[in-house]
Recover the amino acids of this structure.
């Protein structure tokens, strides 16, 4: 991989909970080795970070990314940063995703949509905290892989397998 840092994009439907939490976890754990990004499905992205995500991040002492709530059209333009890895956090979104420029490696780490699954605010907050813990653990494993220097076939399997752990 040519750039000094590994670019990783997390994708979920609305880019207001799952992908933003993942982006924040990677930014926290990156130690300067990664650039973390997140996005959602165009025309489904909400306009602001969901309160369950911001509360979970705040309780964990993590900061939300400066730029949230963007669609993937931002990442398929010619002048967009080229991703090395795209991690999709929603099985339904995986079927919709575009052809990413530069043909990055991809993985599915499927998580339920908290806004759909949880009927009350208290349950949604609990699930967001559990989501953050799970993503943090997975991303800890991810950041310890030799993503720039390792065997690409082995890395591809490892990153995909992380989606079945933690």
């Amino acid at each position: 991989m040519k750039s000094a840092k590994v670019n990783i994009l997390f994708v979920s439907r609305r880019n207001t909970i799952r992908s933003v939490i993942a982006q924040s976890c990677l930014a926290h754990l990156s130690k300067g080795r990664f650039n973390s990004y997140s996005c959602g499905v165009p025309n489904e992205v909400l306009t602001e970070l969901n309160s369950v995500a911001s509360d979970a991040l705040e309780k964990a002492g993590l900061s939300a990314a400066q730029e949230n709530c963007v669609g993937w059209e931002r990442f398929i333009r010619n002048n967009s940063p080229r991703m090395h890895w795209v991690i999709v956090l929603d099985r339904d979104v995986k079927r919709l995703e575009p052809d990413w420029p530069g043909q990055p490696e991809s993985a599915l780490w499927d998580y339920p949509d908290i806004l759909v699954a949880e009927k009350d605010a208290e349950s949604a907050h609990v699930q967001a905290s559990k989501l953050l813990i799970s993503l943090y653990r997975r991303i800890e494993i991810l950041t310890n892989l030799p993503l720039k220097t390792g065997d690409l076939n082995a890395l591809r399997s490892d990153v995909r397998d992380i989606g079945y752990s933690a």
